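Chapter summary example: a protein plus S-adenosylmethionine.
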Amino acid sequence: MSKTGTFDLASGVGGKIEKKEVLSAFEKYKKYHACDGEAEEERKANYIDMVNKYYDLATSFYEYGWGESFHFAPRWKGESLRESIRRHEHFLALQLGLKQGQKVLDVGCGIGGPLREIARFSGTYVTGINNNEYQVTRGKELNLIAGVDNTCNYVTADFMSMPFADDSFDGIFAIEATCHAPDVFDCYKEIFRVLKPGQCFANYEWCITDFFDPNNANHQRIKREVELGNGLPDIRSMGQCIEALKQAGFEIIWDKDIAIDSPLPWYLPLDKSHFSLGNVRVTVFGRFFTRNMVKILERVGLAPEGSQKVQAILEQAADALVEGGKEGIFTPMYFFLARKPSAN
Ligand SMILES: C[S@@+](CC[C@H](N)C(=O)[O-])C[C@H]1O[C@@H](n2cnc3c(N)ncnc32)[C@H](O)[C@@H]1O
């Protein structure tokens, strides 16, 4: 059954974490983001624990606010959020030139919204890799509901070390997921390994742009809040990602921050100054309603202790994303298409 109500949201907070442990998991998660070099090293060293805690705590909020696909999209005028998300997913399938019957990998697949859409759209078999067990369980339920469990499946594993043979996939995509990698070169190198020669990897990467000034305290604050509220290590620049791709052995076909071409800003659904009937839950009114519902549900014991705290950092992150977008210092859609050279 689809879980989209406030009660589902509240009862899902914490994912696979024991409900009585949610508050302490939240406190541990927050420690990974303390403002010192030691915390940054801890975040990298313990990335599996850090990212897993984040998604156990945040997934039900994501599903409640965004539906089954946990990513942004360029927005066209007159288009609903769902339509823009679907178009953004189709774009990846078209860029990869996917053909019926091919084997495709979705790196960091969430609860499988994009994976199901791309499998249906292209007629391919899509495997999602995700190290969050709670999301994989949820994704399997949703595959059954959508009747695509014969063409879509999941593997619970770390995308930094994947349980697949070399040269396994005809195409690989990732949507707003490899930003969680503790090391971008190691991550792309592992993707390179499992991709068949001559085939492509398409990615929407979270990056800071050239407008980010490391000496600007406000830019640094925004970046820190985005990292804290999204379970991220240090956010990388577009240049670092391209360099890592080349080092891993890929040929770059093309790359662009496609946020620049979006007629409406990608962050509009999170912008408090904007109201959208199509996506009420993430507007200022929706957030107010949800905040109060979560407060009540936590008080009466239906939501685990700590739920309000989780919601508070997610709200803060949403505001930081809007600020980052408005300042032009951050993009969630640095797109690249890269090919693994053919074996001669
Ligand atoms: C923002 S979500 C995007 C999910 C999905 N691509 C979508 O657009 O709906 C990032 C995803 O990456 C997954 N992830 C993060 N680090 C991972 C790792 N080391 N191995 C596998 N999955 C990971 C998270 O569990 C989460 O599902």
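Key point: The chain has one domain: 1-343.
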